[in-house]
Amino acid sequence: MEKVLEYLEPKTFNKVHYVAVGFWILFSVIFFAIFVDMENSESRFDFRCGGAKSENVDVVRGECYEKYMKQYNKFSFPMFGFVIINFVLIALVCAIYSQIVRSKVDQLSRGNRNGDQERQLRDQDTASLTGNKLFIAYCSQLSIRIVLGVIFIILQTQLFYPLKFSSKFNCYLTDGTTQPRNSSDNTQNSTLHYCHNQRAEKKTFWMYAVLTVNGILVAGILVETVYLLSRACIERSFMQDSKFLKTHLSLNQHLDGPNGRDTEELRERTFQEFIERTKEIIFQETEGLLELQSPFAKNLTLDQIYTNLVVIQNRETHDFTENREEQLKVYPRSRDENSQPKSMQDLLDVESKKVLIVGRPGIGKTLCCIKLLRDWASDEVLDATLGANFHFNAAFFVKFRRFNSADDLSLKELLMRSEYFPTHHMDDKVWNHLQKNPEGVLMLFDGFDEFEHDEKKTKASPYPKSIEDRKPLQILYQWLVTGKLLKDASIVTTTRPTALSGIAHLKFDKSFEILGFSTKQIKDLSEIMRFESSDKFRDQHFTRKNYLSDNLPKVVEKKFKKLGRVAFEGIQEGKLILGGNKVQGMEDSALFHRLPDRRAALKDEKQFCFIHLTMQEFFAARHLVSNLSETELRNFVSKNIKNGKWQLVFQFLAGLMEDKVHLPIEIITDLLPVKTEEIESADYNEQWTENEEQRKVTCWPTEDERELAVTLIKCLNENSRMKSEAQRKLQQMNFNCANFIRCHLTAVDCSSLVNVINVQQISHLDLSDNNIGPLGCFEICKLLKCRESQLSWLDLTENQLTDEAAKYLAEAINNNNCQLRTLNLRNNYISDIGAQHLADAINNNCQLHTLDLTSNNISDIGAQHLADAINNNNCQLHTLDLTNNNISHIGAQHLADAINNKNCQLHTLNLSYNNISDIGAQHLADAINNNNCQLHTLNLSYNNISDIGAQHLADAINNNNCQLHTLNLTNNNISHIGAQHLADAINNKNCQLHTLNLTHNNISDIGAQHFADAINNKNCQLHTLNLSYNNISDIGAQHLAEAINNNNCQLHTLNLTDNNISHIGAQYLAEAINNNNCQLHTLNLSHNDISHIGAQHLAYAINN
């Protein structure tokens, strides 16, 4: 009943009728409770019968009670069920009627309660056209309720129940039922029992009450119906909706009593009517946007065509300049399914109300705002997503491009000039409601990059004196974001990356980046749009000769020249909005989008903009190539080549110069940077070396010229003559490493890069920390498969690479032309499937020597694939790095079986940051103990290895078959017991271990003593020992000092960082290195407590 009451709108009934409906619902609750109580408490024990023997009393009472119920309830229909259906059905009729006519009543009464005369006249005109639908609906619900009331009265009195339930009842039962059966007497006689029902009077009373209420209902409604019909016959205009509302239903406006409450209710109703009207307009005007219309197919609605874009949260912060090239530098940081919202509603929550959305041009920022606004207008969509605790009462959509002026305006005026605002006036009641309830306000600001603003003025904006302050938009916007106006309102802002510097000082709760469509979405769309006849054209080779071309008509050419000048001047002056005088004669061109007129003092001015900024940039390039002389063009390009806003213009320019033979290509090619730099690092080694020798390479471009080089490469790729000249210059530079680390390269950029830098001398290519993705990897693979390419070292760290990219790389390194020796794929999204692709490749005469798969998603299954590969005699892999994956002891066993095979050539295996445990350590120990194993370096740090695992490894390196030189067990669970096992092992003459790292374990002084005893032995070949973070005190330092003081000790490096060594331990060590027997070259005591005294001891020692 409470739900029914919620759907009863007081404004759809008159005062008396609404009270009557309320009492009806009250009676229904009362009757329901009474009859349910009677049903639950009544039993056959309230029914008494005489004449039965004591042992048969219950039998008699039960059978007589059943006969009584059959007589007074013919159809066995429970009375409480009858009462429920009676009252609920009639109440539902009232609720259904109220909801049906609610919007009609709102429309008719809106003009009377709103000061907007324009809307009042519109509503009155609408009312005159709607006729008497409200009167008919009202009379219809009265008629239905009369019919239902009469039906329930007839059912109660004539069919289901008697008018009176008798308390006395004569019950006839056969003797065989009430007496024991006598086998000698088969005669059965009927017996009369006089029964009494104690609840008969109570039932009779309450059934009469139900009958009375139904009778009053029918009588009351009948009186009202006769009144309405008689008045309608006398006064025909009474049936008109507006007249009927005013004369019969309007009494309900003052139902709630005091004037203060009336005012509050009126304010709330006015606000709700405003919101309903706004939602109606939004829902209608956003259904079929102009951008979605198709000239050759059925137009699709926004709901049909919209798809969730790939959006990531907390994008990496970049120091964007005003250069337009920066907007193309921020690309996907994560395609992880868990890091992207599933829909646009995920952008907002209770705690994050100030949200910034960044995206490249045309990526879908505006459409995202429109979809979010449309979801709000559809009520349940957005509310259901955000939850009951977070609800928007009002939403406003503001496009920055509408306010490209310094005119002052108030917040109220700003809201009135928002998109889809229903009127030219905001009622004071609505405005007051917004001020009192800012937490329910959603404001969408779209296109900050399209707004001409003064950053200095914005950053120095004062605190508002009142909410009516009139200020430029940039100040109002800052007040809204910082909470100085409408403190708890939700603010969503969209912008291109190039404009981030203008709002960098504002603190947003969340920032998002729209990346566009996922790879799967692109594939699905391509499959849908693929022509069935595409196979016929796939093998065809089309050249420019296959196309017909001709000069443009003079009229068109004249217009295009004007367009080029307008586009060029707009970019040069930073103007995106063009006045009507600029495009005079071209207003109907499909190249322009018509904006709302700009309001001026005397006359509104027409406004236009290009349908997309790239279109403006193309015509600007056309203007440059057609109107500037060679000298002017050369000076202009050289002056602005580093200015980001001209980046795409110059790309278009390079392409247009292809056919302009009178313009020398040197205008662009002479700008190609020629400076190189030498870098020396072990990372650049192509072959595994035990001592990690430094490799020196000559890199191009240098760090300060990478941005320029990328810009020019994009330009050069647009012109075949320029590309050839650039390759000639690159060959003369004598460099062997192309270094494009952190250049924000994308898949498209990779295509340009591969086409331009395809020169023979390049052996190293560093593309780490970009965002090339699988498609960019596909382009790079073209370089690997090129016959002339000498590329032997490739770094693709942190590039959003997936299994698809791994597949492309596997095909490339399997190619006969590929000379790649080192492949770095750290920090990507390669899973077991990608690992299988790579395993199949290195299993097939591949020349790859080093493969780094650190920080991917490889599990035991992927480890098995790789193990099967290195187990093959075709595999030449020497170094395999699987750090920070999901490999357990099972994967470790697969790898152990592989390195145990004589075909395996692996020298270095890194399994750090996995979970191989003691079981996995045992498998690996068994493997390196085999004479077939060629492993020299094993890294098992961060793997939950305890003393048991340490014992297994110690037993292995103690064997003369083991060739292991370096063992890293950092950050495991090894104590002094495991240290003793390892110390005993390196004390053996068979052990070839040179480096042992036990950082971050729990070795303690006891373990330090064990190692001291070991390195004190002439059999020990250990050169480097790392015992950092191991709770070693002065006692342990003393033991180690005594060991390195011995002439048998060969230790060159000892690391005791972050232990508990004081100046006393430092003194022991100082005395040891002061001895001529000590061969120590490096001693690290950082993060201890040796104090100045210990430092003094060490100083005396190294001074000796």
Automatic annotation (TrEMBL):
Keywords, alphabetical: ATP-binding, Leucine-rich repeat, Membrane, Nucleotide-binding, Repeat, Transmembrane, Transmembrane helix
Pfam entry (one): NACHT
Start and end residues of each NACHT domain: 353-499
GO molecular function per UniProt: ATP binding
Listed transmembrane segments: 16-36, 77-100, 205-229
Record's keyword annotation contains Membrane: yes
Gene3D superfamilies recorded: Gap junction channel protein cysteine-rich domain, P-loop containing nucleotide triphosphate hydrolases, Ribonuclease Inhibitor
Name used for this protein in its record: NACHT domain-containing protein
Organism: Pocillopora meandrina
Lineage: Eukaryota, Metazoa, Cnidaria, Anthozoa, Hexacorallia
